Amino acid sequence: MALRPHGITRLGYIHIALHGRDMNETRAFYCDVFGLLETKSSSLDRLMFKCWHESAPFSLVIENSMRPGLVEIGFEVADETELDLLSKKLSEHSAKPEPSSSNATLPGLGQSVSAQIPGGLKLRLYASLTETPSYVTGMVSPDWVTPRDLRATPAPLFLNHVGVTVPRPKETTDFLCSTLGFFESERIESDDHRNLLSALLFRSVKDVGGQELAIFQGEGGLLHHIAFTKEDFSDILIDAQYLRQERTRLDPLGPTRQSYGKTFSLYFFDPNGVRLELCSGGRYPEPHPEFKPVIWTEAHLKKALSFYDAEVPPGFLDPCL
Ligand SMILES: [Fe+2]
Description:
The chain has helices at about 25-35, 80-90, 170-180, 235-245, 300-305; strands at about 10-20, 35-40, 45-50, 60-65, 70-75, 100, 110-115, 120-125, 160-165, 185-190, 195-200, 215, 220-230, 250, 255-260, 265-270, 275-280, 295. The protein is an alpha+beta fold. Strands 9, 10, 11, 12, 13, 14, 15, 16, 17 and 18 form a ten-stranded mixed beta sheet that branches. Strands 2-3-4-1-5-8-7-6 form an eight-stranded mixed beta sheet. The protein is globular, with a radius of gyration of 19 Å. The site of fe (ii) ion (FE2) has 6 residues, from strand 9 and strand 13.
């Protein structure tokens, strides 16, 4: 018998907006170079993608808008009762939840509640999708083989986490842990331990766990990166070749063992400068009361961000959108 889930159960999707960018080029990058599946796009003004190993209808939404930026982060919750409970908690903490009906914000999304949280981030919680989740490889006796059209691309398995910047990481982290039940798996503190500079937070225990939100100190509500899961670090090295052959800009950091989060990671950019990550490995989180975060100090920032690189490249911690 499965345990009854409660609260937020998983990171569902990332929704970003671009302005004045070539959406045809964007679609070509995500489908033909990165290896996602286009799903519920209604036009070039709103592209929707999923990974081939995801059963939900979308995990990445890219919109053409006059207001570029990180639009919102979607989290699925256990059921409607839990959605009501979390909505009440948001109200009690002055986050002013706003309800939306099914399909009102995104096609395929059930009833939802959005809220601005400390740090300038907008979250959306939802309890259901309007269609039955299904894998492209089928739900009955699947082969679990990368679809033919996606081979020779990274074709990641699923959305892993999103990196964001906020002015006061402690305030944002405290809110997410106390109000929405997140756990903290790792953190970076100032050398005197007085200031929290970054934190990795999670709700679901999954392959490549320990982070669904990576919070960094910076300007409020901006995107740092969007990360996707690969099974194995050696795949990521091959993927770097595929990306470079398509003239994708790789970040000067890595590919590397990223000690902070315990992943093997490759960072690169889509044609619009959106920073993406492929990662494998990770800390295995255990959300029991004795679970404690790994603590890094600023003096060890270089080792935290890359076990291999001699220096952290300038700009690596800057937001991208
Ligand atoms: Fe990351």
